[in-house]
Protein 1
Amino acid sequence: MASSSSQRLPEWARKGSPLAPGARALRVLLREKGLNTVCEEARCPNLGECFSRGTATFMLLGDRCTRRCGYCAVATARPQPPDAGEPDRVAEAAARLGLRHVVLTAVARDDLGDGGASHFAAAVRAVRRRLPGARVEVLVPDFRGERPALASVLAARPDVFNHNIETVPRLFPRVRPQGGYRRSLEMLAMARTLRPAQAIKSGLMVGLGETDDEIGAVLGDLRAAGVDIVTIGQYLRPTREHRPVERYVSPEGFGALDRLARALGFPTVYSGVFVRSSFNAEEVFATIPAAPPPH
């Protein structure tokens, strides 16, 4: 698989995407509604592109996470109590933006009994009321593997259920010390059992020290768990405080990963240097073979 062992950022891993003038209106709307986005909090390299197109991934339950993952720029701190009005404000913002595919994610909230699942469900329902023709995609934490929490999110009938595996089992203790590889896999499999027709999505990063064989094994595990949409992107270190990049996979290497995932039976694959699980989510959904209508 084509890749670069040099830690110097290659030209093909540099993304110049300044904010277009029209992006200011989106930022004003977000501040007006008191909303957070993972685009901003996680320092996503695609922020300029997405904001300039008038789209964003809403981050529920505040901007303070109860976990400290080695790759993530979201702040770790004691969170504020859940804001009961947030789901309606998210729905209002999505309506103002005219979104046809609304992506909802959240910080991990291990301080809450259900991990924030009921808040996710409330946000899905709020968007449904305000934008009945839109699709809703949720990107959830692991809810500590609690089946009732997962069931409550699925009962809200999201069009896409996403939980990212992120990395290979060997690296979990260093990269996601408060998570668990098996726990995440079991949650994805549980989602398939609880709602068999559900579109289920997961994603992983490369460049954290994994091997090609380990990537292949993770893809096999995800497919066996019932995942039908997989995203694969390059890990880019958000700050010097985060884990270093061990390798940069070339565009040709991501093409090889795409072919590997499809050979393993994934009907929908999105693989590339700047791919993130929520990036171009609407376009990715449209490529699902015989994609179902909204909810």
Protein 2
Amino acid sequence: MIDPAMDRTDVALLRLLSKDARLSNKELAAAVNLAPSSCHERLKRLRNAGVLKGAHAEVDFAALGFDLEALLYVALAKHTRDLVDDFLRDVVTIPEVRSAFLVTGRHDMVVHVAVRDMTHLKDLALDSFTNRPGVTQIETSIIYEATYRHDLVIAEA
């Protein structure tokens, strides 16, 4: 459901930016039939409201020598808010970590990492995860291939 404070033009701007965050304000304004100044104000409002959180470059990790990606399934000893919050806050400071999720089910956390090779993955698991306070177990799944969706998917009212 779309926030009632947002209209079709706001959604159109978000869709355009989710496909290509490099579009200029002038290009965005033309695409949604707005004056550039009005478009700029809408984008500013969306940023201030926390709807538009940022723009990021999509990087090919293999081109940088990180030929292996994996998911680490992490079990925690306790599920206290402090332990969970500390884990999520700290784990994203590890350079190899791409994302971290608090999940339901058998595991407590799922962490996506990009590493050079199996030795790097083993060292990362042993040095940055198994010795972390509260971590009782990790399981690892190697990612053979991945596809990503960046376009905006929302249900309109």
Protein 3
Amino acid sequence: MAFYLKAKKLNIETGDAPKVLLNEQEALNFGIHAGDRIGLSWHKRKRIFATVNLAEKEVKPGEIGLFEEIWSKHPLKKDEIIEVAIVERPESINAIDKKLKGGVLSYKEIHSIIADIVSRRLGPVELSYFVASSFARPYTPQELYHLTKSIAETGDQLRFPDNKIVVDKHSVGGLAGNRTTMIVVPIVAAFGLYIPKTSSRAITSPAGTADTMEVLAPVGFSMKKIKQMVMKNKVCMIWGGGLNIAPADDLIIKVTKPLSLEPFDKMVVSIMAKKVAMGIKYLVIDMPIGPTSKIPNMTRAKEIEKKFVYLGKRFGIKVHVEKIPAKEPIGRGVGPALETRDVLRVLQQKRNRPKDLENKALVLSGKLLEISGQVARGKGKAIAREILVSGKAWKKMQVVIKEQGGNSNIDSDSVALGGEYYRVLSDRSGKITAVNNKAIDEIARTLGAPSEKLAGIYLHKRVGQTVKRGSKLFTFYANRRERIALAKKAIEKINIFTIS
């Protein structure tokens, strides 16, 4: 059933999925309730879907109020007549309901969910239930394959000539610092492999690779430009969220981010769908494991590893998972600018570079060179080290920075930090026996990271070191003094270091 209403522009941005406003009495006449989904079409325009809100006075009977999310993307003529159709319950809703009740979904059912996410037929409420459905019963291997395939195929895909060796490295996250990607990528590219690195922004941490790379250069580019950069230089380091690569995944992330929620199955699918879309053939997964990391123990790590390897085989991607115990952050800085400084210190081989970050990056680079078949087993790390120490990796990074519009002559010591800072001193003498990664993340975000690039924490001490009363433990950086005050309040209740 369809009916017709006159459009009224509402100069309000909801910041969410498309919504409309109907007069309460009008809606009652048509049997429409708040939260219902309706289809809208006008002037031969492809139908779009929106969620209904109700009001008594803002819109009159005979009108339909369109929020800015709709009319800014779909221009309207004055007094445009909108055809409104009540949407029947889509197949995707039935599929989500089935999964919530513990059922196993077919490819058709899974594809219906992903297609409706991409078309915006499903709103944030339905998306939240979809994310939650994997908690009721984890996906079967076949469901994981179907989900990955659907997410990859409903967006743009990048393909390279068959004779190109296309590789990637990806961290599952959950460990403060750990900005190895920005070291691994130039090492591998300098060796001669193709590595089109797309990264996400931070979801539950103070910085993602895209946030950190953005300190050095822009990270938003078109698919056409990305392929040009990679074919020319073998490498790029860009933000994947600005592209139409696995668009369903980016919409799901918008739902999970406010909840700090990331189910492991969703994480595996998210990573693998984007690798499939980018044409990756060899992949190293960095999996930090620790009680205050995303992956809490080796048992869970092995379960997740099996899923990565399984999906790799189904899509023709050779996957190696590097499972690494994580007692503390990798590197000294936490937050975009501070992590960038660590990365540059390693690439530029400064004396004060964080050796733990350097070593881990060499391990991951070596594994990637080995699984690609270009280096003998056990020889990868040594070759990666030669590329780093010789300066070849830094030269390749300079190419990336310049190509993406940044200053390729930047020095690690010139990376700006927050204008406000506060040093936290030890209130006792003893030995540092543990570091709480989650506490570091929480306080770094309190300081403003990742949205405020110059904010974060610099760690002066490591696990196993002895400290004296009054010695420096860590330094807070922020753009505003108010942020420092909030972080000082936080450490009254949250311990970063355990000293005994």
Protein 4
Amino acid sequence: MIEDMRHIRAFLAVARIGNFTRAASELHVSQSALTVQIKQLEESLGVTLFDRGKRRVALTPAGSDVLVPLEKILVDTEAVLGRTRELTSLRRGIVTMAVLPSIAAQIVPRAIKKFIRLYPGVQVRIRDVVAEKIVEAIKKEEVDFGVGSRLLPDVELKTISLQVGRLCAFLPKKHPLTKQNTIALSELAAHPLIVTGKDSGVREILEDALRRAKRPLKIAFEVNYMSTAIGLVKAGLGIAILPEVVTDMDKSAETRCIAIGNPVLTRKIEIIQKKDKSLSPAAAQMVEILKMVTNNSA
């Protein structure tokens, strides 16, 4: 394409100036090189573009016919190349990601702050949704990538490990179990629990662990948002099972976060992409910044 554009620029310069020598000087090429470019273009089009006189070069009828179309091709192509250069240099573009709410409130804001400082011309859009909705949005190509936990293996997706975090029990401050430094899963199973919805990664991890331990899940409340779960804990209405990062959002003295042991429950946070879809330059750079921010906060 670039080579073809050189031929078109050569033609347009000669057509405008009417002289090979001056046109070559303007284009910063030798006259012989310019002559070759015009000849190659004529051969490609199958027509003679110029009548060459001793003092002036004039367009042939065929040259006049192709003048405007070739001008439009050059203008349109340069516009496309300009936009492409802006995208690859991250001077413009859009990054859209689907993110777990707990991650959207923690790692992602720090990454976005760094990203927009480096690339102010690129827009960043966030969809904070549960794990199941993240996968759905990725498959429908509604977002560039997701940041979350896969509930199940999926051949349509590829992942990059970002973070492994513990799940903890959040209790009202006066609950008897707050005297312990860790709580066994068997102890938690004896109490009705505040849990997130079935389409959340945390719920899936908890249910899987209880199935392995052959313990039933007793539900006190089922909620969509972790902030709601914490509110119920503050009101003394039960024990919530949530990621440890929630402690960064809840600085209240009304709750206590205690690690779950025997077994330790962890949640793997990943960058999730559609396997057959490449990231844009802007999205790829956002992924790199997310990885860097996560490593620095580890």
